[in-house]
Every structure is written in structure tokens, then in C-alpha cells.
Amino acid sequence: MQRVLDATAFFLEIPLEGELFTTPLVVDELADTRSRCRFEALSASGLRVLCPGRESLHRVDEASEVSGDSEVLSPADRELLALALEISAEVISDDFAIQNVAHHLGIPVCPLQQRKARKRKWRFRCPGCGRYGESMVQCPVCGAMPKRTIK
For a tag site, which of 21, 65, 73, 124 has the least CB within 10 Å? Predict the structure, then answer.
């Protein structure tokens, strides 16, 4: 089984089986010595670092807009999901936003320490005036900062 690893997999000493992959931006997130050593050990046993294509990244962007997670996904998260989509692999991650977008794309997910996230759609609600929107950085009516809520 092919698996794409998020940074969580390198922070924990949990044994991982199958054909393992990750992305350059995930590797860049590994700042401490312990996770770097884990990365080196997995690399020596066959872990491959690959970059996804533009089409896969575009599909991830579309799915994250639909799910309402586009505001919280980092570039590393997008790259990870795109690679999993491209090579038809399972995603190993505890990040709920990654799991939610993966569900929307039909990508299987395996969390390591957390419970598995349920598929959700998000919207934004202004705490000042109560206005709802699909994607708001600042409320156009009162200027307050909207909060994410389940649709």
C-alpha cells in the first residue's frame, strides 16, 4: 500500500509499513533533530520525496474551496494532498483540515494519534453582525473578523 506522510509521522516513533512518500515542503517542516533523524532512517529504508503536478494541486484547491478549508491549509498540506491524489495513496496525518479535504477528494486517511475526522463543510460567521459567508477575511458589513462554523 502506498502512503503519503505528513510531518506527524516523523514526530512519532510509530512503525510504518508500505511504500512511503512525502513532499519537499513537509521535509522543510521537520525542524527538530529527532524528526530529522526519523526522516533519514525512513529515507534509508525507501521513503521517496516527490513533488505533485499542477493539475493535482488545482484539484486540491477546488476541493478545499468546496469544503471551506482553503483558509487553513498550508502549502505543505496542499502539496501532500496533491501527491496522494496523484499516486492514489493513503494520507497519514492527524490534521483535521487535511483529513476533511482528503474525504472530499476520496483519498483514504489514516490518523496516527487522533480520531478520524468526519467529512464537513465550513462557512464563516461574523461575530459582530451575524452575517454568513463562504469565505470572508473581514466582514464587509461591520469589519469584524469572521469565525469558521460548520455548515
Answer: 65
